[in-house]
């Protein structure tokens, strides 16, 4: 995987999650969002900004019995629809069916408590099982093109996938064309086309998804049992102003300690507890990016950053690179302030529509090709398209990127490197 045994043990410890102390074979033994509840400890008539609200969550099964073990994935927040405000709290698992949350009150006015069961502990164990499995949940297509008889062109579409793990292949036997990236060591393979050679792979596209769940697991995963609000005290809570401010005015920089929560939303604007975050106007964006080359890499979430800059930075224009509008690679320039913004998707596995295989680069390889310097900004994300594959492969990819970032900052320490973490798949707390 490209990391030491000690680092792997540390990662496994960080990923450790409590779960059922016995095999669950009946739905009524799992956590019920209908019978699980939350309550506010020591509720007062009013609070002041900066105080905490203590919440206790009690998990029960479908027979209304208190759960004896932990591992449920609850999320808790304070929110105000009127103020367009929200703040999350860290849920502490006591491993006995009860959970506690301390919710910080960062704004004055009104607020409410909201708790949601994302996944029961039983579902979490199922997710863990398949996270570590080599089961091919995502399939991909390889599009081969080449010369045919009488000056014609012929094409073939075959299945492709990642080669990873002890078995070495998602398809057995001498079935496949193999494409190994020399620097990362990642091996991609496609079924051997009937008429064309392995050298004729031209395009890549997403294929079908395969559900690995058995009938009982599908029952536990049903929509009315996951991502569901639980009942509790949902009345309006009044928050009074406080002369003692919270937060910090320190300038934002790398490697800052992040408290929990790291900030909150008020009037749809993020307020950071880490540093003095700033909302930029269009002209400020242009000034900030003056004489910069921005390299955005990853998936559609960093492409959305590209599209945002395209909309907001004055006079920036997208260049026609004759590539798919959403697949990329993409490039935009602003000549007056000498701004260049690039975006390209990461290498396979990638669930995009049909695009040239030569346009799919591994992030670590692209970073190795950047000279860096005070004018260079590197932004990358890698998450969404790798969740269908073993976590060991994800660790391998991140380790390679880490090596490339360390090398980049060694040769050009004034380079700005920004890591964008993964989105949570669009599941929102309403």
Task: Tell me about this structure.
A hairpin with a 6-residue loop joins β11 (176-180) and β12. The two termini are 38 Å apart. Helix content is 17%, strand content 32%. The protein has helices at residues 5-15, 121-131, 215-220, 282-288, 300-312, 363-368, 391-411; strands at 37-41, 46-48, 52-58, 73-80, 85-89, 91-93, 98-104, 109-119, 138-147, 153-163, 176-180, 187-191, 201-209, 228-229, 231-232, 237-240, 263-266, 269-272, 293-298, 317-318, 330-334, 339-345, 355-356, 376-380, 416-419. The strands form 5 sheets. Strands 2, 4, 5, 8, 14 and 16 form a 6-stranded mixed β-sheet that branches. Strands 11-12-10-9-13-23 form a 6-stranded antiparallel β-sheet, with no helix packed on it. Strands 20-21-22-19-24-25 form a 6-stranded mixed β-sheet, covered by helices on one side. It is α+β, with helices and mostly antiparallel strands and 430 residues long.
